[in-house]
Amino acid sequence: MDLKTLTIDGVRQGLLARRFSAGELTREALRFAEQENQKYGSFLRFCPERALAAAARVDGQVARGETLGALAGVPVAVKDVIVTRGVTTTCASRLLENYVPPYDATAVLRLEQEGGVILGKTNCDEFAMGSSTENSAFHAVRNPAAPDRVPGGSSGGSAAAVAAGQAVVALGSDTGGSIRQPASFCGVVGILPTYGRVSRYGLVAFASSLDHIGPFGRTVKDAATLLGVIAGRDPADSTSAAVATPDYASQLDGKAAGFRLGVPREYFGPGLDAEVGLRLQRGLDLFRRLGCEIRDVSLPHTDYAIASYYILCTAEASSNLARYDGVRYTTRSSRGETLVDMYRHTRGEGFGAEVKRRIILGTYVLSAGYYDAYYLKAQRVRTLIARDFTDAFAQVDAILTPVSPFPAFRLGEKTADPLEMYLSDIYTITGSLAGICGVSVPCGATSTGLPVGMQILANHFEEARMLRLAHAFEAAGGFR
Amino acid sequence: MKITEKEVRYVADLANLSLTEEEVRRYCADLDEILAYAEKLNEIDTSRVEPMAQVLHQMEEGATLRADQVNPSCSSEIALASAPQSGAGQFKVPKVVER
């Protein structure tokens, strides 16, 4: 079997035809993933014991002729901001270097219940704060499509693992684009589910009004299947919605005719790389050929999204990250005579530069005298951005945009200027603020072979329609 | 200048974060740039717009509440397992009050 092209269906057929056992597949997948990790650094650690135990359960089901789960025997990678019982979970931070969670995230439990085999935990920006995975406290990740370049971020390890064949599917997290942007940089499919679609229980909190767990796959169908497994109401997360989960994968029929697709003019202006723009235009043409109606729409408050987002997410982060105090589960500084001094040194020494920058900015915008001017203002602007989408979705079924203004950049190219890095999140942040769903689907490559992604955005809980469009696009060529 | 080094020190203090002098200078410059950029929000009149704190779904009242029953939770042994310092079933911390 070729691990680089293996799909969920391929694993299932192989198991049912007894071409391989789940144990054999898992051992080979672990061997290959560890070997490739020397090149790409996608994983922070592997968990072979847990993987082989999961595979043995699947092999028992095969031997007894039982019905197999939706992910039976499928090698899965999990971003290291999602907790795994008994398997160290660091959030790519020195502070959590030794943290062994006593519980599993709901998404992790659900994928294992369906027979998924977790190979290990993937690298990311520290606490998911970044757009290139260069903020990992441990090591950088190289983009399998172009190893001198970043994989995107913050879920860069999960995207790279799927692109490199180190896993068939992966879990990532998306707060402002952290699944869609690395998916586009690495040439894979990445889904931002609607806010509330997937339980965040066990996702280490960054910005609670924006955080999501979502899937990566090499095909729309694989990503859709993983979404179907992890979606649904969870009593452990009060923000998870009591909305029925459609069978996404079975609705992928390759048809897109008759859909009205909006193209927001604000997303194709200055700042968009010419090569990316060209690939997107060809993508729009493909949707036209598939029988879709392409309409011009406007999302007039787009230009205010970055400022609103970075005020809100840093404010929430400053509050969420207050829990890392050197007492309960983090490393502790050896300096500090008193409790408060110990807190300060632990946090000062343990957090990386970007995390500290965001805590300071977030604390500032929440502090007395600035709360109304920054935080409340940003929340009001968020309402306007969400309203833009409500108005647009009254006219169209889905919206097509670029994912990132440019393809994957070189390691170290954008680390000097934090604001410049923030500005690159413009096309993904708006959907995050509105709480709608989105997917990045491969849309060709630049003349130098760098993958380009197209973003398809749909209204709240309309993943089924969005994924049908993404699948039809992929099936029609998608310029892969 | 949107922010001074003194304010950065004050805010870092609120966040219980020790910073080196070099970090204070760097974050002051970074925040100055970011806050200047954030000024653009003032171009829009939001006086009649409600703030959006959370993406809310239409759910029946009480839909997120569970029955009030005791469920098992993790033991203190497990809770203490990742602590940097513990003893006698407790988290150990440096002294909190002066004698």
Reconstruct the topology from this structure:
The complex is a heterodimer of chains A (480) and B (99).
Chain A: H1 8-16, H2 22-40, E1 43-46, H3 48-63, E2 75-79, H4 106-113, E3 117-122, H5 156-163, E4 169-174, H6 180-186, E5 189-192, E6 212-217, H7 220-230, E7 260-264, H8 274-289, E8 293-297, H9 305-320, H10 339-350, H11 353-366, H12 371-393, E9 398-402, H13 418-423, H14 426-434, E10 437-445, E11 451-458, H15 463-475
Parallel strand pairs in A: 2-3, 2-4, 7-8, 7-9
Antiparallel strand pairs in A: 1-3, 4-6, 5-6, 5-10, 9-11, 10-11
Chain B: H1 5-14, H2 21-38, H3 76-80, E1 86-87, E2 90-91
Helix pairs in contact in B: 1-2
Detailed description of the structure:
The complex is a heterodimer of chains A (480) and B (99). By secondary structure, chain A is an alpha/beta fold. Chain A contains 15 helices and eleven strands. In chain A, α2 (22-40) packs antiparallel against α3 (48-63), α9 (305-320) packs across α11 and α9 crosses α12 (371-393). The longest helix of chain A has 23 residues, at 371-393. The two termini of chain A are 21 Å apart. Chain B has a domain at 1-44: Orthogonal Bundle (Histone, subunit A). Helices cover 33% and strands 4% of the residues of chain B. Chain B is built from three helices and two strands, in the order αααββ. The longest helix of chain B has 18 residues, at 21-38. The model of chain B has no long low-confidence stretch (mean pLDDT 90). Chains A and B meet through α9, α10, α11, α12 and α13 of A and α1 and α2 of B.
